[in-house]
Amino acid sequence: MRALRAAAVALVLAGAVLGAPGAATATGIAGPACDFNGDGRSDLAVGVPGESVGTLDSAGAVNILYGSAGGVTATGNQLFHQDSAGVDGVAEAGDAFGSDTACGDFNGSGHDELAIGIPRATVAGNVAAGAVAVAFGSGLGLSLLTSQVVSQGTLGVEGALEAGDSLGYALGTGDFDGNGRADLAAAAPGEAEGGLAGSGAVNVLYGSVLRLLTVNDQIFTQNSTGIDGVASAYDRFGGGPGVSTGQYRIGYALKQRIWTLGDRLHIPPHLTRGLSRTCRVCRCVRNRRRGHGAC
Ligand SMILES: [Ca+2]
Ligand SMILES: [Ca+2]
Ligand SMILES: [Ca+2]
Ligand SMILES: [Ca+2]
After folding, report:
1. What spacing in Å lies between the alpha carbon of 72 and ligand 1's midpoint?
2. Coiled-coil region(s) at which residues (predicted)?
3. Which one of 81, 87, 152, 208 has the fewest beta carbons within 10 angstroms of its own beta carbon?
4. Rounded to the nearest whole angstrom, what is the distance from the C-alpha of residue 195 to the centroid of ligand 2?
């Protein structure tokens, strides 16, 4: 059973379950299956991880646009960030709220919820440990007044809270146990499985009548029992391509071996031998501007 669940997680995170109810690709745009207000029309959530909140650069935000008879409309649109009323935690520069989003009806209410990745959030002093905020759907649209924020520091959630985990870097949803309520897969590609820096992990949390459960959840790495592959340092299991991490947009191809921690860009020395640190960062930015999406 665990192996089957892991396979489902990988498919959703790869954006391969297109068209499944509530599923969203790992692009930072949740849609088209999301219906937050239950009116039968899909709604759109657009992550803006580089958005400034006040003077806080790249604290991040999400724009919510609703469907109408004429298509997507600005009427009733919403803007969420971590300082919005009802959201646990506070916005901080570089949090990258909205780096990825995914929707699903976690509580079976008939209104989809929106999960929002905050991969660079500092949690209990752990820089870029990351978290996921959930805004709940209602007849009036998404509401943060009953929002839920989960991290690896949340009581019951699998995995140790550590700096650089980057939980929420990529999100996926699906009904993994087939009980009619959507479940959430949240990648933590910076997880250090068995001390292997950046080998990566995926947390899976299940829906319930009220909200996502923080018990009976799971965590998968390439070293999990029955999982093919072997966890190695910087594998970045769960780190899909083309997802913003705030200041840098880096294609996390498997084995690319480049990752971010806090506000710094880390590149293993053997990849950059002979280059100054400035050159390494410039090369990264230049490649991004050329549309390579990678350093
Ligand atoms: Ca709708
Ligand atoms: Ca719901
Ligand atoms: Ca961890
Ligand atoms: Ca379920």
Report:
1. 10
2. none
3. 208
4. 37
Residues 6 or more apart whose CB falls under 8 angstroms from that of 118 comprise 60, 82, 89, 95, 96, 97, 98, 99, 130, 131, 132, 133, 168
Distance 223 CA to ligand 1 centre (A): 40
Ligand number nearest to the C-alpha of 216: 4
Distance of CA 231 from the midpoint of ligand 2 (Å)? 35
More confident residue, 15 or 148: 148
Main-chain phi, psi angles of 283, to 5 degrees: -65, -40
Question: pLDDT tens digits for 17-48?
Answer: 323 333 344 455 655 579 999 999 999 999 99
Gap between the Cα atoms of 83 and 53, Å rounded? 8
Ligand nearest to the CA of 123: 3
The predicted-structure confidence for 199-257, as pLDDT tens digits, reads as follows 999 999 999 999 999 999 999 998 999 888 889 898 888 886 433 232 233 333 222 33
Prior bond to 32 cis, omega within 30? yes
- Compute the distance from residue 116 Cα to the ligand 2 centre, in Å: 15
| Spatial CB neighbours of 133, under 8 Å, sequence gap ≥ 6 | 82, 87, 88, 89, 97, 115, 116, 118, 144, 147, 148, 149
pLDDT at 159 over 50: yes
